[in-house]
Amino acid sequence: MKFNAATWGAVLWPAFLGAALADAVLFTLIDPETIMLFGVQSGVSRPSAYTVGFFVFWFIMIIVSLTALWLHADNAEKSKQRPLR
Amino acid sequence: MSIATGETKVISLYQSQKKIYTKSVVGRFANLRVFMVFFTQAIFYGLAWLPWNGRQAVLFDLNARKFYIFDWVFWPQDVLYLTFILIVSAYALFFVTAIAGRVFCGYACPQTVYTEIFMWIEEKFEGDRAARIKLDQAPMSANKLWRKGGKHFFWILIGLWTGFTFVGYFTPIHSLMQEVLSLSTGPWETFWIFFYAFATWGNAGFMREQVCKYMCPYARFQSVMFDRDTMIVTYDQARGEPRGGRKKSVDAVALKALNLGSCVDCSLCVQVCPTGIDIREGLQYECIGCSACIDVCDTVMDKMSYPKGLIRYSTENALEKNWSVAAIRKHMLRPRIIIYFSVLVVLVGGLAASLLLRNPLKVDVIRDQRVLAREVEGRYIENIYKFNLMNTAERAQRFVVTVDGLPDAQINRGGQIIAEPASTAASSVAVRIPVDTAKPGSHTIHFKVQSEQDAAISVTEKTVFLVPR
Questions:
Q1: Which of B133, B288, B355, B356 is surrounded by the fewest CB atoms within 10 Å?
Q2: Closest CA to B319 of B392, B230, B384
Q3: Which residue in the set A10, A17, A51 is minimally distant from B191, CB to CB?
């Protein structure tokens, strides 16, 4: 699998949109100021929670997309090598 | 991929990009685009500064978890409205696309708009298409440094202003301005201003058509909305071919004898295309419907004294069946359009109705679990309730709580709750009944919370009253 700039674009951009959506949904339902971490008030401000949340989501979605892409390319390669009959 | 030789050759569909030097163009569609650039950007840069009810008219205040859109204040509980607004926008886009093709891409998409602005600056510093190609090939010199540097200076300036405005929709822009001027913006505000500025600079300065070609999902799924009656930018093959060079004296009448079509093969339509395609090869997914090729071809047709419109807005059906403009209009009303339109009307109607009927008061009542139902003053049974009021109206209100469901129930404390504009108010309400007027156990009661200023604003909540044994 060759990863060039366009491949990265195709991975980064949908992951970006997905992360924005996930971030919006999560923090619409949950107010970051009410989050407890290990039993104590987390003390993170709302803007930092929104921002960090966004990048965590983005990172996860990038990893998932890359994995899917890599597995898919691998599978496509294998099914090509094996003749149908 | 050649199977025959046993070798697998990977042909990348994403070949390394050749930089596209877009020739600028004048004409009616170019004018329309310039107008749209001013129109959309006046809204984007200006709306953030518009005052309304003593605050910013449109503000998605993330820090306060409240969205202000003109007269409305949305809370996280109102997320359905925003979802609705997004669905309506998507449907409006489908509707417009089915009729008129990619007009959004060509005139209103931020990618197009900022690319247009950035290319205008580029042309001011680096000159026209030929000059830019020459400048890029030339070795570094003081002249090149000044031209490139000046361009980037203004690109970055616009990028930063765009980033600032963008953040100004999520945090009050007036205080953000003060913070910027005193260099005291918070870490996240600073980060997002620079992030958005960088994205603007990168997308409009460098990525340009590649965003539309490789990254835009809309470009891929728009074919679902298209049919053979959708307006697209077309090249009239029957009229244009066979293409070829000719003397300027060859008029429209002399063409037949020379076995030539109207296309003079000047390649200007390719030079002006921001995505670098040749419209003469037919409808391609890269075409963003910007009509630059229409404008430039019309000027060539004028010079040759041929009729305009060799490249024009038309539909696949119209081109094939030689329809007139009136016939194209007649085919605009088709099942797909009617369905899109009806759904859009229902959605907009539903949204408008629910916004108009929206109750500016939300009430949450729970029986205070920490205080047991108890006997007080030897004569009453008392239960305590915790009230949480949300006053989404933008004025302070005094709410009166009444209780009903048990014959002699009355409110002893907390019967009046004052809520500030667009904020929550909490209160503890004590309800008493005389001893022995109700059987031990749980009894259903209803609280009515009503605004003193406006009797129409009221909410009734059900809860239980406990009588101990």
A1: B356
A2: B230
A3: A51
| DSSP-derived secondary structure letter, B286 | T
Distance CA A4, CA A69 (A): 13
Q: Which chain B residues are closer than 8 Å to A13 by Cβ? A: 215
Query: What chain B residue is nearest to A51 in terms of C-alpha separation?
Result: B188
DSSP single-letter state for residue B374:
E
Residue-wise pLDDT tens digits, B411-436: 988 889 999 988 889 999 999 999 88
**Which two three-digit tokens encode residue B13?**
């569909």
Does residue A75 belong to the interface with chain B, where contact is any CB pair within 8 Å? no
Which residue matches tokens 């913006």? B185
Domains and CATH numbers, chain B: 49-77+102-215 (no CATH), 232-323 (no CATH), 361-467 (2.60.40.10)
Q: Is A50 touching B (CB cutoff 8 A)? A: yes
- Cβ of B6 under 8 Å from any chain A Cβ? no
User: Are B133 and B21 spatial neighbours (Cβ–Cβ below 8 Å)?
Assistant: yes
pLDDT tens-digit map of B132-154 = 999 999 999 999 999 999 999 99
- Asked if A29 and B214 come within 8 Å (Cβ–Cβ), the reply is no
CB-count exposure of residue A74 (10 Å: 0-12, 13-18, 19+): exposed
Cα dihedral sign, B324-B329-B330-B333:
positive
Q: How large is the ipTM?
A: 0.82
